[in-house]
Predict the 3D structure of the following.
Amino acid sequence: MPVLQKEPSPLFQSPLFHKTALEKAEAEYSKYRQKIARELTQVEREFFASMKAMQKRLEGEPKNRGD
């Protein structure tokens, strides 16, 4: 049985719809970029975890002073 394909609505082909869709997409992308900017990347999270582990290790070692 063949599938009936409807012609796209003229609304979706109008320049106004296209402009509105682009504006909405740009606004959503801007929100996404702001959210991502506040989050650490996987590499940054691992770096900070490594630094914390190093700090704990160094704080636990006895200090070698020549006193």
Summary: Residues 15-38 form the longest helix (24 residues). The chain is about 70% helix and 0% strand. Residues 15-58 form one domain. The mean pLDDT is 84.
